[in-house]
Amino acid sequence: MKLLWQTIKPYKALVAATLAALLLDVAGTLYVPTMLAGMINQGVTSGGTDFIVSQGLRMLVACCCASGGALLGNYLCARLASYVGRDIRNAVYDASLAYSGSDFEEFGTGSMITRTLNDINVIQQTVMLSTQAMLPVPIICVMGTVLAFQIDAQMGAMMLAVVTVVMVFAVIAVRRAAPIFEKMQGFIDRMNVVLRENIIGVRVIRAFGKEHHEEGRMGRVFSDYANAAIKVNWIFAGVDCFSFCLMNIAEVLLMWLGGNRVGAHAMEIGNISAVVEYAMLIMFYIMMAQFVALMVPRAIVCLQRCAEVINKQPSIVDGDGSLPAGEGVAAGSETLPTDADAGDEGSGEGAREAMPSASPTVNASNVVAEFDHASFRFADADEDTLHDIDFACRRGQTTAIIGSTGSGKSTIAKLLLRLHDATGGTVRFEDADLRSLTQHDLRERIAYVPQKAWLFSGTVASNLRYGNERATETEMRHALAVAQSDFVWGLSEKLEAPVAQGGTNFSGGQRQRLAIARALMKHADLYIFDDSFSALDFKTDAALRRALKPETRNAAVLIIAQRINTILHADQIIVLKDGRIEGKGTHEELMETCEVYREIANSQMKGGE
Ligand SMILES: Nc1ncnc2c1ncn2[C@@H]1O[C@H](COP(=O)(O)OP(=O)(O)OP(=O)(O)O)[C@@H](O)[C@H]1O
């Protein structure tokens, strides 16, 4: 609830205007039955046409006030609820941006999506409906009962009795439905997870002929949700029937008692309709409120779930240190080529000359990034994934990491990007402990090509601009040329060619090359290629690495690879096994000294050359 108050706080004026409009609606609504009674008692029975007309006009004004208030109130409610939804959604999204990989895993992707979309929709709907339907209830109940008592004490007492029964019933129904709604939110999480898995993994499901198995799994998850929804609907239906039944009984009882009272000359005839109207009004509002009240526990759960995301302290926190101006970034921005500079655009070599590269180093040892006896353990793991990692990536040099699957290669890249923090030892960038830096500063200086080349829906150009918002067409052409992505010029829309979500309308190799081009749009001090050449044929792989050389000559390059050909000419090769460095050196040195490397090399290269 704290989150809701915090979110609503900036909209005090809007809240006040909404309440004022709703109050106008309630006042007009409550005024009408009393006037109607007066009209019947004094106008109809005595035939006073003037009184009927004047009372009718006053009723018309009251109705207009009520309708205007309702219209304005509902509009303002909708606005308020939309603002609340938008602000909570933004807060959840902003908070999640600061999460490390393990922070995300704590919630899970499915749950994060449910929280951001469904949970906030529930909150938004509840804020709107509860403001419209629940806030006026106390005023309607108290004022309606007081007015009914004023008209006739016995009729008022009967009405109070009926209203009390309806209220008790409403409270019981809400209490029974609330836990089911809470469960339903968990079922939505599960549906999300299973659905995502099925949609993303549809090809695997088909390839293994597991359609029936998955249908069963989906069926079970959907059934759980459906069963809970049916239970809630039963309660709703019961509430509905019982409330209408009570309303009718109340009307009959009030008519019967009213008739007797009028017969005994204890009450005027018009008062019957007024009391009946008050009773109907009160019960109608209570009925509406109880339906909305059923949503409240669910909205509270949703609020708690959003608050969990917002209040979670990210495990990676920015330090207050700063890096000196980026070598690559600064140099790049000074010499950005313009479209006019484009000589032989797209032709690799010529364009390459126009492209900036990082300026010579200011760091005497040329070290850009360094692992100093670093180790790392995942939060949910029993033992370290990386042990005593100790090496440096130097400007102008290519460092390569090779090792079997699961040996910890990608984890090293993630530590450099501060997607995780080392749990032992130190990782440095430009002599500064990564923990002392802001994540933004650090990542500004690193260009990263992830193992899974992910492209965003949009166009080729919009994806390239992800690496540099102000990129010119010449720069894009150049980056594509270096990344051996000439296939783009074969597409009918060239740079404006559409890219589907995840880049699924391109082949694996094309995606990798576009992801490399995107990274090259950034003028970085450290380029990390995490298994980024794996889907390329040997010829393209070699051509790409050749084109990369001048591009990154003043930056440090870290290549993670499984293929020995890719790293053969690296200045330094790190051999990783089970998270430990087994060897360090050039290819020739490692062939002499490192058994693990020799095994890898021999298994991939004929004769172990
Ligand atoms: N989020 C995680 N939680 C727990 N353990 C993890 C997590 N991510 C990776 N691991 C474990 O850490 C180890 C190293 O993973 P990593 O992805 O760094 O290996 P890799 O050498 O890059 O493998 P590959 O070449 O197959 O990509 C693996 O054993 C993996 O199971």
UniProtKB/TrEMBL annotation:
It is found in: Cell membrane. Gene3D superfamilies: ABC transporter type 1, transmembrane domain, P-loop containing nucleotide triphosphate hydrolases. Residues 328-360 are annotated as: Disordered. Residues 16-298 form the ABC transmembrane type-1 domain. The chain crosses the membrane at residues 52-76, 133-151, 157-174, 234-258, 278-296. It is a multi-pass membrane protein. Keywords: ATP-binding, Cell membrane, Membrane, Nucleotide-binding, Transmembrane, Transmembrane helix, Transport. One of its GO terms (molecular function) is ATP binding. The keyword Transmembrane applies. InterPro entries: AAA+_ATPase, ABC1_TM_dom, ABC1_TM_sf, ABC_transporter-like_ATP-bd, ABC_transporter-like_CS, P-loop_NTPase, Type_1_exporter. Pfam families: ABC_membrane, ABC_tran. GO terms for biological process: oligopeptide export from mitochondrion. One of its GO terms (cellular component) is plasma membrane. Residues 362-603 form the ABC transporter domain. PANTHER family: ATP-BINDING CASSETTE SUB-FAMILY B MEMBER 10, MITOCHONDRIAL (PTHR43394:SF1), ATP-DEPENDENT PERMEASE MDL1, MITOCHONDRIAL (PTHR43394). This is ABC transporter, ATP-binding protein. It comes from Collinsella stercoris DSM 13279.
